Amino acid sequence: IPTLTSDTLSLFEKDLKERATNLFIVDFEKEETDLFAFEKVNLHWYLKNITRNPLTHLPDNDFIAFLRKFSADSTFQVNSISFPLNRSFADVDKDYETTTEIIQEKDWRFWKLTNDVNRLLILDMLQKEHRYRNIFLRGIDNGIWIKYTFERKQDTWQLIKIEDYST
After folding, report:
1. Is 15 within 8 Å of 125 (Cβ atoms)?
2. Helix (H) or strand (E) run with residue 125 in it
3. What is the residue-averaged pLDDT of the chain?
4. How far apart are CA 99 and CA 5, in angstroms?
5. Residues contacting 108, CB < 8 A, separation 6+
6. Is pLDDT above 80 for 146?
7. Which H/E stretch holds residue 9?
8. Residue 11: its pLDDT value, please?
9. Which residue would you say has higher pLDDT here, 166 or 9?
10. Is 148 exposed, middle or buried (0-12, 13-18, 19+ CB in 10 A)?
11. Residue 62 CB coordination number (10 Å)
């Protein structure tokens, strides 16, 4: 389940104090989004409405446009990574101890991130003014736990860290 957040916590680790919220599910392949509108009534959440919209109707359209270009253009991708890039991971050869490797630009291989995070979840309470974006990729009962951290530097986004604690 890929989720986008501007906080260090996953959306699922927060207590929603809102009375209503919208959940967007981004389909990068179809270039559209499904919007699920929820309302809280007497401490219970209810689905009010479902609509399908183009990607331009997302609460963080600027970052989504960046992700699409990052995943489509290898030159843009390399220029949008803060090298040397830190990648931390659970090292299976060291009993899942956290290991950090440094990836140099010459060692980078282009990858289409939108394939990995297709069906990305976004809540409308995303703090757009925040300078960080985290994409959490979590599995359910399968050991997947990956976090991509992006930082807004001047007028563009940069991938600054990858953490993969998947087991």
Report:
1. no
2. none
3. 89
4. 25
5. 78, 81, 83, 85
6. yes
7. none
8. 47
9. 166
10. buried
11. 12
In this prediction the pTM is: 0.87
User: What six digits make up the tokens of 96?
Assistant: 């899942």
Per the document, the length of the chain is: 167
Stretch (H or E) spanning 116:
helix 113-116
Give tens-digit pLDDT for 96-134: 889 999 999 999 999 999 999 999 999 887 677 788 999
- Both tokens of residue 5? 């957040």
Query: What phi and psi, each to the nearest 5 degrees, are found at residue 75?
Result: -65, -45
Model pLDDT, residue 17: 67
32-41, strands of its sheet edge to edge:
44-54, 32-41, 20-27, 120-123, 2-5, 132-138, 145-153, 156-164, 81-91, 97-103
Give which of 115, 122, 120, 112 is closest to 138, Cα–Cα.
Answer: 120
pLDDT exceeds cutoff 90 at 75? yes
Q: Which two tokens stand for residue 44?
A: 């219970």
Distance in angstroms (rounded) separating the CA atoms of residues 7 and 164: 18
Cα–Cα distances in angstroms (integers) from residue 140 to residues 1, 24, 145, in the given order: 8, 20, 10
